[in-house]
Amino acid sequence: MRCPFCGHLEDKVVDSRESREGDVIRRRRECLKCERRFTSYERVDEIPYMVVKKDGRREPFDRDKVMAGVMKACERRPIPMAKIEALVNSIEKYVQDSKDRERSTEKIGEMIMRRLKELDKVAYVRFASVYLDFKDVTEFMSEIKTLVRGRAK
Question: pTM of the prediction?
Answer without folding.
Answer: 0.68
